[in-house]
Amino acid sequence: MSEVYAARRARLHDQCTAAGSAAALVSRPANVRYLCGAVPPGAVLLLGPVQDVLVATEVPSAPPLSAGPPRSDEPRLLVVPGADGDPAVAAADLAAADGAESLAVEEHDLTVARHRALDAAAPGVRLADLGRAVEQLRLIKDDEEISCMRIAGELADQALGELLESILVGRTERHLALELERRLVDHGADGPAFPTVVAAGPNAGRPGHLPTDRRVEEGDFLTISLGADYRGYRCQVGRTFVIGPSPADWQVELYDAVFAAQRAGREALLPGRAYRDVDRVTRQVLTAAGFGDGLEPCTGHGVGLEIDEDPRLTPSAMGKLDACVPVTVEPGVHLPGRGGVRIDDTLVVRPEADGGPELLTITTKELLAL
Fold it and tell me: Which residues form the Creatinase N-terminal domain (predicted)?
């Protein structure tokens, strides 16, 4: 993998040079991991005019770079004791010592105080904005990244499938969420990709719902959204079920509408399709079914080293899908006081010649009565 990381850093070097900066400081944790592999918390990467340096406050428990003699294209590791200051400040000082006239920084990741500290540490160096250059490099995933996400999807599906075989009535949302996260780890995940959502009854379908002590009852909609983190890569799945022998008519109507919208969104995931078009076709289905009021601002988003990354599938999003870009499609409708439906999948954009979008989460989307 060291060659992969080196190639990624080389692409970023080229972009910085073209923009007029001979040095760049990468501080966003996911971006540092993308360029170097697993690193200690708080580490930053300096792409310098003379050398690349990974600055950390502790020695990695496992080498983030390849074993054996150092390669000429590998960053040097510089350990700065935590009590002595900020790794980003130490990196800025090193850039100045190496003769950098400008330093591109991730302004969207830096606090005002940290930006000022960098400026003070290297007063002769002009700070420029690197923007979201690394995030743009991360958009298209390689085979190894998608393989990790595929495994993460399998782990999430497995944990969810096992839970559905247990008794649910009478158990609290919080209890079920904790059990799902335990099952993820038991099956080999590094942890949950995000706080697990379990929402029952009037809470079902509510976006970002935090599990409560509300107990699952007969007749409830039950919405579950979870994800697994596997080797840093994440995958998300969400489903809605009915508790009891059979769903009510209104539950079937609502579920069918959300399912049709989610299917339209999935089928639109083709290279060259505008982000906003994927959002539009999904919303059109729900609006035509009479559920257009109060729809969420985002139909889906990119996923990878972070559970919520570029691109965004929204009405105002600019840009078009590329092949090998993993995204979620997760429409939902919540009816206040009654509950609602959410269906989430993670897919990889593929051309029609390759079979179309690749589904990474395969738990059935049939409306199950549990």
Answer: 8-140
Residue 356 has pLDDT above 70, yes or no: yes
CA distance 237 to 149: 12
The reported pLDDT for the residue numbered 62 is 58
Calpha distance 17→135 (Å, rounded): 18
More confident residue, 190 or 22: 190
State both tokens at 221: 């909609």
Q: What is the pLDDT of residue 67?
A: 41
Q: What is the mean pLDDT of the chain?
A: 94
- Mean pLDDT lowest among 83-97, 107-121, 173-187, 210-224: 83-97
b/e string for 113-134 if b means 16 or more Cβ within 10 A?
eeeebbbebbeebebbebebbb
**CA separation for the pair 343, 257 (Å, rounded):** 11
Evaluate whether 157 touches 237 at the Cβ level (below 8 Å). Answer: yes
Distance, in Å, from the CA atom of 63 to the CA atom of 36, rounded to the nearest integer, reads: 10
pLDDT the model gives residue 65: 46
pLDDT tens by residue, 149-159: 999 999 999 99
* C-alpha 273 chain-centroid distance: 21
CA distance 269 to 187: 30
Per-residue model confidence (pLDDT) at position 83: 60
